[in-house]
Amino acid sequence: MAKDETERVIRLRRLGMLAYEPVWRAMQAFTAARDETTADELWLVEHPPVFTLGLNAKPKHLLAPGDIPVVNVDRGGQVTYHGPGQIVLYPLLDLNRLKIGVRELVRRMEQAVIDLLAAHGIAAEGREDAPGVYVAGAKIAALGLRVRRGRSYHGLALNVDLDLAPFSRINPCGYPGMAVTRTRDLGIAADPAALGEALATHLQALLGYNAPLPAEDRLPHVETRSA
Q1: How does DSSP assign 150-211, residue by residue?
Q2: What is the mean pLDDT of residues 121-137?
Q3: Which of 157, 192, 210, 220 is deepest in the core (most CB within 10 A)?
Q4: What are the two backbone dihedrals, phi and then psi, of residue 127, each rounded to the nearest 5 degrees?
Q5: Under a CB-based contact definition with an 8 Å cutoff, are residues 146 and 28 in contact?
Q6: What's the pTM value of the predicted model, to 2 decimals?
Q7: pLDDT digits (tens, 9 = 90+) for 169-184
């Protein structure tokens, strides 16, 4: 069996706290510059407060942004909030090489969160009508993706220990009155860094990666080219 059929490599980038837009632009550049030999990556990050609106977002779902910046982005979905104390995990993957489609990637991303919470004794589930992960009807993780030429970017956000008040300024993911929750309120004491590492490990396993590359703590430098 050929080496590329037995080894599936991936790199984890632990980026710490970074502003949303530079990370988004770096994801675009990485995706545009990669080719069939580029290793897949997971980017683990927290963002300062920001509302992001997906390609399908309706302005009516942004109720009262106040002093929190609003960024229109190129993922699917409606409006969501990112802030300190929330894990954001971006899978930059070659789906053709993985031989999975977008729906299957979403399913495995949701399952990674479900498995993480189950390890702490919390039952969670996905929903067919509203992508994400829910605990007793309250949303604890949001998902939004973009796929270009079979390569994914954007990803998922898990509420750990963030201020939930900004969610009252929006209709989360386009659903008025949707309840949101966080791991701290579920009795999970682990901090965002620890849960982020565990979440990345769960997702890597579900996607079949078995050869991790050395981790990085900075954004990649790529020579941009036209997509």
Answers
A1: TEEEEEEEEESS---GGGGGB-GGG-TT--B--GGGGT----HHHHHHHHHHHHHHHHT--E
A2: 93
A3: 157
A4: -135, 135
A5: no
A6: 0.93
A7: 999 888 888 999 999 9
